[in-house]
Amino acid sequence: MGAPDTDPEAVAEAVLDTVASVAPEVRAGLPGRRRYLDGENPSGEDVLAADVYADDLLESAIGALDGVGTYASEERENAVDTGDGPVSVAVDPLDGSSNLRSNNPMGTVVAVYDGALPAGGRDLVAAGFVLYGPVTSMVAGVGAPEETTIREYLVTEDGEREAVDTLDLPNDPTVYGFGGRVPDWPADFAAYVDEVEDELKLRYGGAMIADVSQVLTYGGVFAYPALESAPNGKLRLQFEGNPVAYVLEGAGGRSSTGDGSILDAPATGLHQRVPVHVGNDDLIERLEAALG
Ligand code: P6P
């Protein structure tokens, strides 16, 4: 390795290129890795052979980059020291991997922070996700959250990113998807759902980035809210909440923990959970009013 690059945004671009470059290999390795392994991930969830496979590929490729000092993953208890670089990379190697057994879309989420982990969303210098759908695509942006532009790319069989277009949230929202069980929703969230259901069509597939892709394409709202049984919801701030908030806010939408932008949520731990609500500005504004 040469001298670590010191420009965080240049390193971030290299990280996004690297995630795209390994995407075909991740996708090609899925068919033979649909079995569950013994043990659980740090969040207490079952682990598929594909989760470990994708994580190992990404750690090896990202950790080798000049400028990356730390690699962290939803599948690893602790972050990995990968050198002296200025940025830390947090990855959900296969978001929604339980969809592999039912052959539904899933993907890879990546967040690039300027500095050490755990980090707040305002420390992001890039974020995005690869979606393994009918085609392999990437949605990502580089720069400070307030300055980024979110773009969609097709990922070629050679792992190259081909820009398609910039992404701006449609003004006439049509879809919603909410995680958790109805009886677990707090009453004020259930009241919000009652209101929203009259206006939007349900789109929920069990993989955050696939459901978020519906919102980015058609407008609407995705939420994995706080639950009576899980006051901080299910999704992880470092690996899911911050990157998806970066993307939605960068595309002209809004994010909320229920009490302000997810990007302002204090970072307290590598695997901390956070309620996630992202989508069109007025829908999130109404959500925050409902949650009081
Ligand atoms: P549920 C996938 O395991 C994940 O972390 C997100 O991608 C997704 O939004 C959520 O959990 C699905 O959770 O409770 O619907 O299975």
CATH class of the largest domain: Alpha Beta
Mean pLDDT: 96
> What's the shape?
globular
How would you spell out the order of helices and strands? HEEHEEEEEEEEEHEHEHEEH
Number of strands: 15
> Architecture of the largest domain, CATH level 2?
2-Layer Sandwich
Specify the structural class: alpha+beta
Q: What fraction strand?
A: 25-35%
Helix coverage percent: 25-40%
Largest sheet: 8 strands, mixed
Name every ligand kind in the structure: 6-O-phosphono-alpha-D-fructofuranose
Query: How many domains comprise the coordinates?
Result: 2
Low-confidence stretches: none
Kindly provide the radius of gyration, computed on alpha-carbon positions and rounded to a whole number of angstroms: 18 Å
Cofactor: Mg(2+)
GO molecular function, one term: magnesium ion binding
GO cellular component, one term: cytoplasm
Binding site for Mg(2+) 2: 92, 95, 240
Quick summary:
The chain is an alpha+beta fold and 292 residues long. Helix content is 28%, strand content 27%.
3D structure, described in words:
The protein is α+β, with helices and mostly antiparallel strands and 292 residues long. The chain has two domains: 8-166, Fructose-1,6-Bisphosphatase, Chain A, domain 1 (2-Layer Sandwich), CATH 3.30.540; 175-291, D-Maltodextrin-Binding Protein, domain 2, CATH 3.40.190. It contains six helices and 15 strands. It has helices at 8-28, 49-63, 187-197, 208-218, 237-250, 281-291; strands at 36-40, 46-48, 68-73, 80-81, 87-95, 106-114, 124-132, 136-142, 151-155, 161-166, 175-178, 201-202, 220-224, 254-256, 276-279. Strands 4-3-5-6-7-8-9-10 form an eight-stranded mixed beta sheet, with helices on both faces. Strands 12-11-13-15-14 form a five-stranded mixed beta sheet, sandwiched between helices. It has a two-stranded antiparallel sheet with strand order 1-2. A hairpin with a 3-residue loop joins β7 (124-132) and β8. The radius of gyration is 18 Å and the shape is globular. The model has no long low-confidence stretch (mean pLDDT 96). 6-O-phosphono-alpha-D-fructofuranose binds at residues 95-96, 98, 179, 206-208, 224, 234-235.
